[in-house]
Design brief:
Helices cover about 35% and strands about 20% of the residues. By secondary structure, the protein is of the alpha+beta class.
């Protein structure tokens, strides 16, 4: 599945995989994409920048290499969704294999 299309339990699961804190249970992951207490610390720790885009949504940017200016971005309807998509893209790339139970 494209990282840019992840949402809900699938997005939370992918974040948990990045954090090495996951289970195979659909309800077993933290709510990174909807709970600031879960996703907020990741944004702060990794220095993810968030701003509104011209379409009324949000865009998150994470510089992955300061020397050559490489970065990844994520977009979403909320700050947390954009930031968590960006975070997952920085760790797992543009495509993520998601368990069938979560799609």
């Amino acid at each position: 599945m494209k990282t840019s299309e992840l949402s809900g339990a699938a997005l939370d699961w992918a974040v948990a995989v990045c954090e090495k804190n996951w289970t195979f249970e659909p309800d077993g992951c933290d709510s990174y994409s909807t709970d600031w207490a879960q996703g907020g610390p990741l944004i702060e720790r990794d220095g993810i920048d968030i701003c509104t885009n011209t379409y009324g949504g949000w865009i998150a940017t994470l510089i992955t290499d300061w020397e050559d200016g490489t970065f990844v971005q994520g977009e979403g309807d909320t700050c947390l969704i954009a930031a968590m998509r960006c975070y997952v893209a920085s760790k797992l790339g543009d495509e993520v294999e998601i368990p069938k139970e979560l799609t």
